[in-house]
Specification:
mainly alpha, 83% helix, flat
């Protein structure tokens, strides 16, 4: 009986993890990349008609921007903490 309940909770946790990662990819990374590309290219990229390539490129830029922002926050927090 415990194995059935444990399997059920693992399935629910896997589903929630998939939904969270999917939402993170769809919203946070996509719009961070889209905003960055629109800022850098003065609104000319991404084009109005989106293809799979442009969406993938936008998500990739969003991931790069998010990682760079995370690294910069760590660097600045380190400087504030140690007074460098």
């Amino acid at each position: 009986m415990d194995e059935i309940i444990e399997g059920f909770f693992k399935a629910i946790a896997g589903l929630l993890r998939f939904i969270f990662v999917s939402l993170l990819m769809d919203f946070v990374f996509y719009y961070a990349g889209k905003g960055t590309l629109m800022l850098v290219t003065a609104g000319s990229y991404p084009p109005v008609e989106e293809t799979k390539t442009t969406v993938n490129f936008t998500v990739f830029i969003g991931i790069l921007v998010s990682v760079a922002l995370f690294v910069l926050v760590i660097i600045f927090a380190d400087r504030i903490r140690y007074g460098i």
